[in-house]
Design brief:
There is one protein chain. By secondary structure, the chain is mainly α. The strands form two sheets. A three-stranded antiparallel beta sheet has the order 1-5-4, with no helix packed on it. Strands 2-3 form a two-stranded antiparallel sheet. 19% of the residues are buried.
């Protein structure tokens, strides 16, 4: 078993079409299930229930603004988590369309889990509170962001599952697109 010490697995959906299909298919399936669950709480027609075309357009513009704010908040929280957990400044990736941060060193299993799921859990809790305190007519605008939040975690869940199978003995490196698991 000493040969296993130098094994590494690269998870890079950009260069592996099968991984890309699996991860995005899983995220899409999660989004569909979450949308169906949302229909139990409030009919999806509420998003179209407005006083005219201008109000409908305003709702969609606000939804896009909220989605952009979500992505920036996610990356800000992720960068803060990286800095708090790793003790080092997060590296900003200038070639990404959104502000994107990655750790400056390899991570343990627990560090990776914290950095990956703190933003999802924190923003998920805020969105959940907003869904229930705002009037029901705004449910779908907020719930769509929640769907993005939860379904977007599909890749992190996949990596966490892979790491769990290794019983926490791995080191994780992340460069913004590929995750390298070394055991």
């Amino acid at each position: 078993m000493s040969g296993e010490k130098n094994n590494k697995e690269i998870i890079d959906p950009k260069s592996d079409r099968q991984q890309w299909l699996r991860l995005n298919g899983t995220a899409l399936a999660a989004a569909v299930v979450l949308a169906l669950l949302g229909c139990i709480y409030a009919p999806v027609t509420l998003i179209y229930n407005t006083a005219g075309m201008g109000m409908l357009l305003l709702r969609f513009v606000l939804l896009l603004i909220c989605a952009a704010a979500y992505f920036f908040a996610y990356e800000y929280i992720r960068a803060a988590a990286i800095e708090k957990i790793s003790g080092e400044k997060a590296v900003k990736l200038p070639d990404k369309p959104l502000a994107s941060a990655v750790p400056n060193r390899s991570l343990t299993f627990k560090e990776y889990l914290k950095i990956s799921f703190v933003p999802v859990l924190l923003l998920g809790a805020v969105l959940l509170i907003l869904m229930f305190i705002l009037p029901v007519r705004f449910f779908w605008q907020i719930y769509i962001i929640q769907i993005i939040n939860l379904a977007g975690a599909a890749g992190d869940v996949y990596i966490a599952y892979k790491l769990y199978k290794l019983k926490g003995a791995a080191r994780i490196e992340y460069d913004g697109s590929a995750v390298i698991i070394k055991n």
